[in-house]
Amino acid sequence: MKAAILTGYDKKGRALELRDIPVPEIGDEDVLVRIRTAGVNPLDNMIIKGEVKMIVPYRFPLVMGNEFVGVIEKTGRRVSRFRPGERVYGRMELKRIGAFAEYAAIHQRAIARVPEYLSDEEAASVPLTALTICR
């Protein structure tokens, strides 16, 4: 599969490479999602520039991308809430990002079904932004 890979931090934000890598393996509580749309936001730029390495020290090479919309291709044996063919969106877990790829493995707790009234583009912009709390 194709994926956007970060091979090292880059203060100019231009270090991504398009590479062929294996489709990720899934665990018992994971789903394999065929990515249709990925959101791009300031967190992605911060990761590329190394601005969050004190919080999450990523290892390279790293598949980039934090939020997505896609269709479930396969489920782990302990996944009961979702089925193949369902359209879902989610925010990749901090230690296991990877939405800038054709496929991503993600824990079932990090996804939800996409409301039918949202397009893929609209839905892909929601998961990370939805974590913002207004007071």
Shape call: globular
The N- and C-terminal alpha carbons lie at a distance of 42 Å
Using only C-alpha atoms, the radius of gyration works out to 15 Å
Outline the low-pLDDT stretches.
Answer: none
> Fraction of residues in helices?
under 10%
Order of helices and strands: EEEHEEEEEH
Major sheet description: 5 strands, antiparallel
Question: How many strands appear in the DSSP assignment?
Answer: 8
Proportion of β residues?
A: 25-35%
- Coarse structural class: mainly beta
Output mean pLDDT.
94
Please count the helical segments: 2
- Arrangement of strands in the largest sheet: 7-3-5-6-8
Concise summary:
With 135 residues, the chain is mainly β. It has helices at residues 42-49, 120-124, and strands at residues 2-6, 16-20, 30-39, 62-63, 67-75, 87-91, 103-107, 111-113.
If you had to describe this structure to a student in words, what would you say it looks like?
This protein is mainly β. The chain contains 2 helices and 8 strands. It has helices spanning 42-49, 120-124, and strands spanning 2-6, 16-20, 30-39, 62-63, 67-75, 87-91, 103-107, 111-113. Strands 7-3-5-6-8 form a 5-stranded antiparallel beta sheet. It has a 3-stranded antiparallel beta sheet with strand order 2-1-4, with no helix packed on it. The longest helix is centred in the middle third of the chain and has 8 residues, at 42-49. It is globular. The model has no long low-confidence stretch (mean pLDDT 94).
